[in-house]
Design brief:
6-stranded mixed β-sheet, 43% helix, binds zinc ion, Beta-carbonic Anhydrase, Chain A, alpha/beta, globular, 211 residues
Amino acid sequence: MEENFIEHKELFEHLSSKQTPHTLFIGCSDSRVVPNLITNTLPGELFVVRNIANIVPHYRLVDEYLATTAAIEYAIYTLGIKNIIVCGHSNCGGCEALYQSDEKLSRTPVVKKWLLIIDHIKKEVLKDKDITPAKRAWVTERLNIINSLQNIMTFPGIIDRLKAGELKLYGWHYIIETGELYNFNSGTKSFKLLEKSINYDEIYSQIFTDF
Ligand SMILES: [Zn+2]
């Protein structure tokens, strides 16, 4: 910890009086999802919101889900961030919990209530009666990312900012075991693997300059 601090001493001194992050990163609370590692960024670059299953509630639900909605609101309207990344991930326990029995979820009634926000995704996925557990997980995680992107659109004035190019919105599916990132393409409505070039720094600098 101390070594980390010494390594970034000058940066922390520079950041001591204010933060000017360029990106709002919305990710799962999962311990394997490490925002700065995934994006190859330093302290001061990301404003981070994490919750179970990287869910963004509809803005109208603001009275119920204050912590997540308040953090997103603050990032957009006070910090004026330029990019929003919704980052879901493989093997997401939150998404999987959608399919657990009421008995199993009885120990975590608040988690159960939180997941009701994306209950419609479960209904959609289960329309495919023959779906395998692996495909079910994959599809649920991706529909959940798209759902969060759609709910970001419900925040006031967001669509105008996107149209004006003042804000960019990204949906990523992060694969834990390989480190791969699939980026949601809103035109084709599909996720496309971000090419792994020789070095990660290059990929991320491309992503961020593309923002
Ligand atoms: Zn998760």
